[in-house]
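Appendix B. Chain record.
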Amino acid sequence: MRYLHTMVRVADLDASLDFYVNKLGMVQVRRSDHEQGRFSLVYLAAPDDSGRARDEKSPELELTYNWDPEAYAGGRNFGHMAFEVKDVYAACQKLMEGGVTINRPPRDGWMAFVRSPDGISIELLQAGARLAPSEPWASMPNTGAW
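Structure tokens predicted for this chain:
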């Protein structure tokens, strides 16, 4: 058995691509638009996994966009996706500069949580050893649910 992908339904494909690609830093691996079924599938990968995703079609994040509007509830009941980052402070700073709320700041130099435009909880974990506590993160409160 091998892990292939996680699929999330998105309400606004442009906003989701802006979040996952421009702000979080993922790479679009492939896309297919299905006119008869009225949906699009966009497969993304973490930069360090993009070659493997192109060759093996895993590990990936599949964004499913249905062209006809639907209401999607949940997000939190999905659980979360986790990404290892080289510098959790730098990753959170980039996200904040892009207008993303840091729901659980990396006070411990190890872990942070943010949410996608569709409410999907995203965990960011520091690669390697924890970073030393640093401001503004060390004293930043939680915001909303994560």
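Further analysis of this model is presented in Appendix C.
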